[in-house]
Design goal:
With about 140 residues, the protein is α+β, with helices and mostly antiparallel strands. The chain has a single domain (about 5-125), classed as HIT family, subunit A (2-Layer Sandwich). The chain contains two helices and five strands. The chain has helices at about 50-70, 100-125; strands at about 5-10, 20-30, 30-40, 75-80, 90-95. It has a five-stranded antiparallel sheet. Strand 2 and strand 3 (about 30-40) form a beta hairpin.
């Protein structure tokens, strides 16, 4: 399922560049304020998760929400652990919403996308044409 993503823009707002981050903004049907906050470290040995960057992303989620709605707490955040996300880099999805029906719509949309993707991968695997995208996240600093 290919959701019609509209008005996709990639920017590097103040505070992002020095953290090796960038911001993707886009629109989905009935969901106008969608963002992906991405961390792309230049060091290949950088761990899969960096808590300083996660903290920065949460502060930015509040800021984006306040800018769009006037309320810093009107958003949904989605962050997946390294073993269940498509890309190995740290990234956080932020959806700024104003009403509860928008949250329900967002979850329905995401469920449809991920269910379709899972079925597609299963069919490709059965046909022997599954892509080899798996990766192993780098461990946290100081972990065993």
């Amino acid at each position: 399922m290919n959701i019609p993503v509209r008005n996709r823009r990639i920017t590097t707002p103040p505070g992002y560049g020095e953290r090796e981050c960038f911001l993707v903004s886009y629109q989905l049907p009935l969901c106008k304020h969608c963002f992906v906050l991405c961390h792309e470290p230049g060091d290949p040995d950088h761990p899969s998760i960096d808590f300083a960057v996660m903290s920065f992303f949460m502060a930015e989620a509040h800021e984006l929400s306040a800018r769009v709605t006037g309320n810093a707490h009107s958003f949904v955040v989605i962050h997946s652990g390294g073993f269940v996300r498509k890309r190995h880099n740290l990234h956080m999805h932020v959806f700024v919403i104003r009403r509860r029906w928008e949250k329900a719509w967002l979850y329905a949309l995401l469920a449809a996308v991920h269910a379709t993707s899972a079925v597609r991968r299963a069919v490709l695997r059965l046909a022997g044409r599954a892509p080899e995208h798996s990766f192993e996240p780098k461990p946290l600093r100081g972990s065993a």
